Amino acid sequence: MFGLTFEKLLIIGVIAVFLLGPERLPHYAAQLGRLVRSLRDMATGAKDRVKEEMGPDFDDVDWRKLDPRQYDPRRIIREALTDVDPFAEPQPPKPVVARAAVNENSAYLQHKRKREVLGAGEAAPFDSEAT
Prior knowledge:
- This protein is 53% helix and 0% strand.
- The protein is mostly helical.
- This is Sec-independent protein translocase TatB.
């Protein structure tokens, strides 16, 4: 809730106790309670009004699907850019294509073989200009 943790709320409450003092604190606590109660009543009234205006269709709505927190913009864009029809029947898997032969004389494999050839007490090559 607005980045407030329990500890922060506790600190705010302690500061409020010191600033308001024991004389005014009960009055402001009662006002806060009335405010919370009125907000809860307004939310309940709005929900009841939506139920009343929508009629029996209200129970058929899947509200979790309409929750904006579930939307991932990356997923939405990825789905929009792919030409895959979500309602199409699944296609059979494509056959596996064999890879090309590996070049045994590649610089990477030569370097890898050199590293494997190092003995137990032999130090690895070091380039002082690379650091």
